[in-house]
Please model this.
Amino acid sequence: MRALLFNPTIPRFAATKLSGVFSRRSLWGRFSPLQFTEVSDPPLPADEWVRVTTRLGGICGSDLSMLHLQTSMVTSAYTSFPFVPGHENVGIIAQVGPAVQDLAVGQRVTVEPVLPCAARGIDPPCVHCAAGDYNLCLRFTEGKISPGLLIGACRDTGGSWGENFVAHRSQVFPVPEQVTDGNALLVEPMAVAVHPLLRHRPHDGATVLVIGGGVIGQCAIAALRALEIPARVVALVKYPFQADMARRFGADVAVLLGRGDAHYEAIAELTGGILRRPMLGKRVLIGGVDLTVECVGSSRSIDDALRLTRSGGTVLILGLASVPRNVDWGPVWLNELNITGSYIYGVEHWNGRRLRTVEVVLDWMTEGRVDLSPLLTHLYPLEAYPQAFTAAMGKAQTSAFKVAFHFPQTGSGREEAAPRG
Model:
């Protein structure tokens, strides 16, 4: 099958790390770790697995960090190379293992990419998987398949940047007829936002600051509104088109990121806080928001999240932070902040039921509670990957949100209209 294959050998890593400073194109060029090639279809690892033919494969912010070789080295300990990237997906079941009774060839599905104990055939499961917190699995490097946190970061599964991939039956969710391909593709990033907000639900009347106007930031705003939380939602975004989308999804106020700490003035005014200037560096906000949802992962965004949250407030770090630099951690102890991170999703308590986060999101989409289709802005065939990555990395020029690969051979009668480059 045709696929993009990521294999960061030391020579390719070193060459790309150096040349990437001067040319973005070198990140996917001839000598980069990412290559467009023919690879063998991944075999089904066990009888409980299925093969999915890809219809849409999304490009996530974490994928762009991978291309820039800026992903935390911690995650490499949970990864097996080479692998076909792509964990956001919509596809059609093309093959089912003999032990799969509840899925059928031809079903349209989205696959939750996490590879915990169940997918690895580990029984008994680890203590976290047994409790339903498979997002905290202790066995991501063990079992019947090679190490990997996710499909799209494991050499045995393939990923949605290829024509097909394999998944354990526990990961596969049929897509209801009412849910379009575009919405189904966004189930995974929406689940990333929903999971921590259900665990750290803001109180009624809270002011919630969402830092970042990309897909995860927009999903966080949509999730707050879908949860019907009576909170004031403030979006801190980089570009005007992101501010427009944030307001469309329900943000009460959208603040544009300013030079230095210029945007602090808007947050101070909204919260009744007081700005004081230290001897050096950014101004200090006395007061601030009740909850900050950080969806970028940069040093600047994390520093802002800590500075703009009130004493005793909570900071949720959803952005894929690698090695933040120039972050002043003073507000953490000075204001006794509650800081937590969240990577994926899990099992939730919702309306008196225990559901996977992905199931909650699919239910919302089926009911019409959320419609994320405006976020799917750019579609490209796999062979046009240079244009796709250029669009995803050049938001100022392209106004891109979700950029995805589409695979015409699978057909897609339920795609939304979107630019194709």
